[in-house]
Structure formats: C-alpha cells, structure tokens
Amino acid sequence: MKKNIILTCVGVSTLAVSLLLVGCDRQVSSETKSSVSSDGTVKTKDKTVTQSPDGTVTKTEETKKTSPPEKP
Asked: How many CA atoms lie within 13 A of 47 on its CB side?
C-alpha cells in the first residue's frame, strides 16, 4: 500500500514539473489586413509570429476569402 502511494506521489510530481517547464508560446506580433474588391469579395490576411519557450520563432499566415451572397 505504501509503495503505491509513493509511486503515485512521484508520478504526480513528475507530471507537475514537466508542465511547469514546458510553458506556453508567446505571441510576438499579429497583423490583420482586409480588402474589398469591386464585386464585393472580402479578402482577409492574418499574420502571427509566436515564440516558444526554447526560442523557436514560428510565423503563420492565414488567408480567407468571403464572397457576397448571390442575389435572387
């Protein structure tokens, strides 16, 4: 019984320490640009730069295109 309790405590402690060391990504910059064309289509471009705790920098770019609803 004592062995199970000790193993459980060691496992929980190891998990807690690993979560503290991993941390979260930090957002360095974010930029959003939108443009509307003559036919009513909206283009949105999002750029985000994040930095992980180990110093790795990640750039993500997302483009969305929304067309207006068709007229009946």
From this structure: 5
71 in a structural domain: no
47-61 per-position pLDDT tens digit: 999 998 888 999 999
User: Could you tell me if residue 1 is inside a domain?
Assistant: no
Q: What is the pLDDT of residue 16?
A: 64
Per the structure, how many domains does the chain have?
A: 1
Residue 13 belongs to some domain of the structure: no
One-letter identity of residue 3: K
**For 1-72, where are the E strands, in sequence order?**
26-36, 42-51, 57-66
Cα–Cα distance, 15 to 9 (Å, whole number)? 10
For residue 59, give the nearest of 69, 45, 70 by alpha carbon.
45
Is the pTM higher than 0.70? The answer reads no
